[in-house]
Amino acid sequence: MTPMPPFDPNDYRKRVLAAIAKRGGPDLADAFELYDLPLDATGLTDAEVAARLDEVWGFWQRQRDHPKYRTLVARLVDEHEQRSAPLRSATSRAAEAARVRAERDERGAARYEILDTAITRLVERYGGVPAEKVAGLEEIGALGGLTAAEVAVRLRRHRVLPDATPAPDAVPGGLTAQRRAQIRALLTEWGELCGERVPTLFALLGLTITDAHDGMEIRGRADVLHRRAREMRPGRGRAVLDELGVHVREVLTVGGPLADAYARAVVADATEALRPKVRAAILIEDRLIGPDYEYLAGEGEQLGLDRATAERVLAELAAEYGGGVGHAPPASTPARTTPPTATPAPAGGPRAWEAPLKGARAALRRGRPAEAARLAAEAHALDDGTAGTQLRTVADEAQRVLDEAAALWREVAAARAAGRYADASRALAQLQRRALDAPPPPGQPTLQEAIDEARRAQAGPGTAPHGPTSAPPTPAPPPTAAPATAPAPPTAVTAQQADGAVVITWSSPHPAADYKVSRQRPDGGWSVVGRTRDTRLEDGGAPRRAVPVYAVVAVVGGVPSAEARSDARPAPAPTPAPAPAPAATPPPAPSTPTPVAPRPAPSAPGLPVDFPAITNVAFTDGRVTFDWPPEVTEVYVTSRVGGAPRSPVDPTARSWKVTNTRYQIDGGAILPADLPRPAHVAVAACRRGPDGTLLLAPDFAPTAHLLLD
Known about the structure:
Blueprint: H1 9-23, H2 31-34, H3 46-62, H4 70-78, H5 80-84, H6 90-126, E1 129-130, H7 134-143, H8 148-155, E2 160-161, H9 177-194, H10 201-204, H11 215-231, H12 236-252, H13 256-285, E3 287-288, H14 290-302, H15 307-320, E4 324-325, H16 354-365, H17 369-381, H18 388-418, H19 421-434, H20 447-458, H21 477-481, E5 491-498, E6 501-507, E7 514-520, E8 526-532, E9 536-539, E10 550-556, E11 559-560, E12 564-565, E13 601-602, E14 615-620, E15 623-627, E16 634-640, E17 654-659, H22 660-666, E18 669-670, E19 679-688, E20 694-696, E21 705-708
Parallel strand pairs: 1-2, 3-4, 13-20
Antiparallel strand pairs: 5-6, 6-9, 7-8, 7-10, 10-11, 10-12, 14-15, 15-18, 16-17, 16-19, 19-20, 19-21
Helix pairs in contact: 6-7, 7-8, 7-13, 9-12, 11-12, 13-14, 13-15, 14-15, 16-17, 16-18, 17-18, 18-19, 19-20
């Protein structure tokens, strides 16, 4: 029995945590490695093992703020009970040791499989291993975790043919290695936090390296990224995004040589990542043929390259190693065979497995693991003994995704049974992104039906029930479909000063929702105060002289509601509309031929529409400003020379529409440059009718007029 040495935190961090992080996470490690226990620990008592488990768990707790391993140890702490359970009793520990020992033996044999396949192919083609291919074999061995010495021991079984050795590769220039490593580490951590791979700063902004010179687009998206970080809850995710935003502003938004250097560094990093895989393909087949070429081009795109650059890099690497790029087999193959286009048969010729294997990889990229597993099985049936590793890798990946999908479906079933549709929506969103065709458990609806059910449940009490309902006398599809997509907004928003802060409270029909609270600035813009799951929030940064206006938005399952404001007036009691009254009466045609902007329909006299008054109209810094009324998203500004406009649809006046977003961006309503002076200006509020028609107030409020000198 191997004795158990005392627990050394520093040694554990360097030997265990570093290896697990490099390998890709705790899912690729076993419990004995995680808790630093010898595999043949059958002689250890349960008390000794429990003490070691507590020591390791305590070490994880102390490392939760470690700059490099914080994300890894946070996950280990959360999964401690599950991962340590098989080690707590002697019986389960022995069974787990037998399972882990078999798994390690299989993994050790798999380390040599890629290398042995490459050596076998070279011996078949050359009668031995050319000396110039040895360096490439060492790189292939490194893909399986083998050292150069282990590769050399394997090569002793074969004759090495003398030949020239390739020249060393040139090292491209770029940003400093320290900064590039910091950016890569932050992008990796952000990808782990958000569940998506983000290879470059360009990808973080939704761009590619070809956009390095588009300074305006980069600056616009950097501003959006900054606002997104400000709206996030305080925590590690927000801190990582803030740091990435700093790199975006300092590297990309300045443009010029620094952005070009980063783009070149992305290409250089992708080239180095693709180099051993291209060399392995060229080493065996002398060229990049169809499936390998498509797979490596896709890898290049996942590393942050655009398609054209990925193809150029592959061509350069292939030429560097003395090969070419094409869809035909290598020259040394005795006969050309056309890959099957329909369902291939086992006797369809060599490499008949390529087409279904390519389809399986494409299915995985599209989020269809069941289809990928079926195609991988079809490719396995056509395998001629040359694709074992590739087929097993794709099949294992498809099975892993299906296993994750099964776990997510169990979460969905439990959440549906408990009525926790917000939790169900999060799991369903992951299924929709990763496993569209994963079969649901018995008794569960299909994926789309479950998503629709969760949306209806979160939309509020006014949502129509599932199933057919009686149709109204007049069909109106848009109003019936709208409640199913957006949750009901909060109600009764109040803001009061208390102990040097402003306390905002509201009511909500959603028991489990996130709320975003914003404060209106003196210039009419909005600032996000914070996010909470409670129906109460304190704003310690509010101005002391007066209570500002606040807006609250409910977010359920990632879908935001309409905003509710603290200065909103109580809604008037609904009055029944006349039975066949038309929505609007079109205004008479203008009597002058002067072209004017299209006018909205004025409100019909019998239509129960409330148009709030526009107040405090002023001319400030070349813009018309006023107090924007609550629950209004559009207004009409009307200007007339020689007197005040008679109505919002005055045919002798000039009118234009202004949205609240445009108003906030411009800091007011901008007047046309060719507007003559003096002129009378008036502003009227607008509403949207049930059918989406823009309805205009029938007249101006007395406080909505302004004379421009």
